[in-house]
Amino acid sequence: MVGVSELHEMYEEMVTARHYEERLQEEYLDGKQPAFDISAGPIPGELHLAAGHEASGAGVCQHLRDDDTVTAPHRPHHIAIAKGVDLKRMTAEIFGRETGLSKGKGGHMHLFDPDVNFACSGIIAEGCPPAIGAGLAAKKRNTDSVAVAFLGEGAIDQGAFLESLNMAAVHDLPVVFVVEDNDWAISMPKERVTDVENGAQRAGGFDLPGARVDVDDAVSIYDAAKEAVGRARDGNGPTLLEVQVHRRMGHFMGDPESYRPDEDKAAAEQRDSIERLAEDLRAHGVEDTTIQESRERAHERVEEAIEWAKDQPEPDPADAHDDVFSNPPSGVTESDPSAEVTGGDD
Amino acid sequence: MVGVSELHEMYEEMVTARHYEERLQEEYLDGKQPAFDISAGPIPGELHLAAGHEASGAGVCQHLRDDDTVTAPHRPHHIAIAKGVDLKRMTAEIFGRETGLSKGKGGHMHLFDPDVNFACSGIIAEGCPPAIGAGLAAKKRNTDSVAVAFLGEGAIDQGAFLESLNMAAVHDLPVVFVVEDNDWAISMPKERVTDVENGAQRAGGFDLPGARVDVDDAVSIYDAAKEAVGRARDGNGPTLLEVQVHRRMGHFMGDPESYRPDEDKAAAEQRDSIERLAEDLRAHGVEDTTIQESRERAHERVEEAIEWAKDQPEPDPADAHDDVFSNPPSGVTESDPSAEVTGGDD
Amino acid sequence: MAQQEESEQQATERSLTMSRAMVEAIAHEMRENDEVFYMGEDVADYGGIFDSTDGLLDEFGHDRIMDVPISETAYIGAAVGAAQAGMRPIAELMFVDFFGVGMDQIYNQMAKNTYMSGGSVSVPMVLTAAVGGTYNDAAQHSQTLYGTFAHLPGMKVVVPSTAYDAKGLMHNAIRDDDPVVYLFHKRLMGIGWMPAPDGPKTGVPKDDYTIPFGSADVKREGEDVTVVTLGLHVHRALDAAESLADEDIDAEIIDLRTLVPLDTDTVRESVAKTGRLVVVDEDYRSFGVTGEIVASVAEDGLADLEAVERVAVPDVPIPYARPMEDEVIPDTDDIADAVRSAHRT
Amino acid sequence: MAQQEESEQQATERSLTMSRAMVEAIAHEMRENDEVFYMGEDVADYGGIFDSTDGLLDEFGHDRIMDVPISETAYIGAAVGAAQAGMRPIAELMFVDFFGVGMDQIYNQMAKNTYMSGGSVSVPMVLTAAVGGTYNDAAQHSQTLYGTFAHLPGMKVVVPSTAYDAKGLMHNAIRDDDPVVYLFHKRLMGIGWMPAPDGPKTGVPKDDYTIPFGSADVKREGEDVTVVTLGLHVHRALDAAESLADEDIDAEIIDLRTLVPLDTDTVRESVAKTGRLVVVDEDYRSFGVTGEIVASVAEDGLADLEAVERVAVPDVPIPYARPMEDEVIPDTDDIADAVRSAHRT
Ligand SMILES: Cc1ncc(C[n+]2csc(CCOP(=O)(O)OP(=O)(O)O)c2C)c(N)n1
Ligand SMILES: Cc1ncc(C[n+]2csc(CCOP(=O)(O)OP(=O)(O)O)c2C)c(N)n1
Ligand SMILES: [Mg+2]
Ligand SMILES: [Mg+2]
Q1: Quick one: pLDDT at residue A269?
Q2: What ipTM is given for this predicted complex?
Q3: With 70 as the cut, is the pLDDT of residue B32 above it?
Q4: What pLDDT shows up at residue C10?
Q5: Is the peptide bond before D89 cis (omega within 30 degrees of 0)?
Q6: Range of the domain at C276
Q7: Which label site among B134, B179, C322, D24 has the fewest CB atoms less than 10 Å from its CB?
Q8: Contact between C299 and D310 (Cβ < 8 Å)
């Protein structure tokens, strides 16, 4: 059974993640109103926010150590926060600044923090194979680290995921696949793209255990993840875990969501896993003031990160030419900013 | 229950297919002995023979019409024969002759006969998506044709197959997936690459029916395929069917099979579906002389096809430049044999 | 009477965005031919993330404007199968950057089946995909990949730069008996949330018409330097030409419109006149479009050539942050500089 | 004593096939570094369909010479993940023609993760693949696809043409901190059932050594015409040079050895001397390697250039039947003709 201090940790992570998304939404829309222009405002590019997914990141990552690997999809912030990714440098990355995790080269879909073994990919389900690779490395090195691949329910129809289930199973890899079911893949409801209501059912075809958490509840997810991560850590192979979450905002910022029934959106907003967890905390005898303090700490942390990020310098245009390779070939003038580059802005 | 005339048809098809492979083996090795040189002899390229797979082609295709589509993998001859592909032009294709099905451009892994809607691909599992496309076309056009994708048991780990299962299921397409389990994917035994003993188990993860025929027996395959094809034809959606077959020859000609235990090979040779079917015929009161006549007809047909094929002219080198497009752009000189082509032999 | 004439005039000379023009062609073909249908992710209720199918669901319903699972291999391959059965599917790859999840169907089946069957099979399908950067979507969502598709035989490759061309090329693409890869640049579509430059919105006749593949369009005649380009960069090159005109440099701007087939004749004729060649694209610089254009001129018109410049994305993935993305995607100044440099030589 | 010297001589100057040389490098690295392992289909008990892992299972066992499911996306991606965790995996794609089933892992992950992480992540892995035709394996099993990999940034691309190079380049590939695509030509490997020409079997030192990437090798010096090539066609070009010598045409033959990085300096220097450039490869002609080499010389050395020829596979899939495959894959005569033609100009 989960103890109160862990509940508390999860709560604070979830509040952090929620507030983070709300604040990013504000920042992102700043300059994009009244007319939404994706190129305007302080945050460039697409932005997929994870408000309503927090229980998944917190409930699963609660069981993970820094040496465990996580791969996240295009909607990664809540997972990154729960995994302990450096919040300031992550925020600077999202704002496209020089001191960002990727020096501004990656952006919000490509967050990499090797210190806590966190990586992303914006291609659906393609984080799964690298996760099994991390699991394979752990197994080969005889460590007890595990790897967790997060994906959306829309990703369970993609070959990369399905092949990975099989390879993880046949090699008994210490891997957990976590499917975040928010009912939608952009505008496509789950029932339009698969006949299976419970995504964990995919596991049966490859003989690995599958489980689904039907409620958007951090404690239930924590419990299911405990079993799955424990199984991996103990050398007993992979698990497929599907968890119900909710998409409280659009698929990406600017999504009109005109395809989405109002009731669906309203329902998503009602089933709030953060409120639910606050109740659990109260049931465990945690005082409202303590909960409030948590909230404040979380908010402060977010504000600090955003403030810090916005203060960071923009990258030098010439930096674009670096980092194609870790070991740049000496003869390649194209990635040498001092060389004449006709395609550039020098 | 299968009637004796159908048994008889299947038998003759299977004998044709077996004799065909034996004769191709001879022809192929001619010029490649004593030293095996893949470029020598009358048949160029790789050659994957299907001796031991006959029951699958015959048992399944017995239920198919010309307007039904079949896609076959790299080991296609027995299926092509059962589907009614023109044997002479197919043989000419394998010998690389101008009058071959593909004018010598395709070869034995790329047999196309639009008259009976037969196609191949040499890429593992990649015949599945086109098969669901044929099923989709049938559904859209409101015909009762069906599509069948054949693949090997080694292909059930490939994304193309797994995605196709899902898409066929969610769109209720008239498609049957037939997995020919011959225990080996080149040198890799099934248990090395998946934890699932019964490939049909994959179906469960996508909510389509799955079935497996455990014995290499034409009648059992016929019965299982009858149900599956019937389901598709009646508009009741796809089925995954796995059938046990045996690889009596190497993976391809020239395969030393040193990875393969002698017993395994010997066992494969013992469980002969053709002999089994001959017994069934006898049990149905068919005379040995009638059976013998069937065999002779089959052998004659094969000999005729091979003789015809070997008499056919080789393609003109310049033909290589045609057929990239059905509607060749007028400006493209590269595919115009009369134009100057530096990469050619003119 | 006058009023009617005016409305007829309007009817044939309405200005449309590129996305409206593309959709109009698709709708027309779908009305005329029951065998045409569209498959992709979010193409039905959403109308295509980049408006490529906007409004089509209402007229044609979910059976012909089909949302599909996120299974590019399965549904692009299904298009191949349906096309071989004689239908005329259009399959959309949401971003061209995702080609790697379905490339075997695109290349080993769609592009090769006609040849491998000795012509007995045709694959009359269109693969549409959004291409291009300029809005900071980073390395996995900002590429054009023009060169990758053009290099591999068996696909016709179309890159419209205006609404007029988008419509005529789409009509041709759907009617063509071969697989056509139709790459539309997001920045040109005229999407509400991604303002287009002025050029792509053009007059578009209401009726259907085709633009043949393999005919480059001389967008601007000029005597001094030939600029060969396509897609978004047609407009950037035209802008560069305007500013160069002030310096008495007269640039000829050629929009290739299709890469396969490639209209090398128009390019060579132009270089025969100007002697100076600048090639501009939004793909990676090496082993791609710019190299091919230069080489094809060098092979047959070496004597004409006095100067050569290439302007393209240096060989780095597309970075996210604005200053770096701006650095790698060629802009008007980069083009003008290259033309000046060629002119000086 | 004399005997010992001889055996030392033998030891350093044994002649090896390309496959033995490649395997020797892999075995050495595996002995030295526990983090190196090999994954692929039929690489264990079979020893690699093209002998790329022949004998390794015996020494290293199934844990380090791993047969994997026919799931290229999964296992190539697993190599990416293991590499990012600090291991040094080698993943084999049995035929390069199958790239389409795993291209997203190859390109959107393996090749881009270093850049997208701003250099905080490295992906020290090798992707090996067999390339090439000449044995009638048709359109899905005969390509080199050199240009496709070289065009897309983030991968180093290696194409050995001799046993000596194969070993030194493999050592370098495994030790390199970046993803390396190592393309070995089937016809050069010295496989029992696919006889190699004479050239690729060379003396190979027993000890380990590296050949740096980006250094082309002048295989034959010549004054009249520069022939730039790689892989199998190095040997065909050398044969052509021999016969041309009889006609008093002195060809310089340059083996690029790596496409990324590309040693343009060596090419330009040679053209500065000869003034005539012939580029030969076994990839498709358009939008590929031949175009890039020509363009890179035209850009910086236009004044030197008096003649340009390209010899490559015309833009058609590889046909099956012998006369047609022979037609499209450049042979010694095609090369000699092109050199003659360049020399005449
Ligand atoms: C291979 C691939 N196809 C399509 C896309 C475009 N895309 C981005 S997110 C998305 C929907 C994903 O849905 P889901 O997996 O349920 O995640 P969610 O967005 O709901 O969190 C799609 C189709 C992509 N990134 N990669
Ligand atoms: C995507 C892909 N990967 C690998 C191969 C090489 N290959 C050809 S046949 C084969 C084994 C196939 O085994 P299976 O599917 O069981 O069919 P079988 O040969 O046993 O009939 C492999 C790996 C291929 N053709 N395509
Ligand atoms: Mg979702
Ligand atoms: Mg098999």
Answers
A1: 83
A2: 0.96
A3: yes
A4: 52
A5: no
A6: 217-344
A7: C322
A8: yes
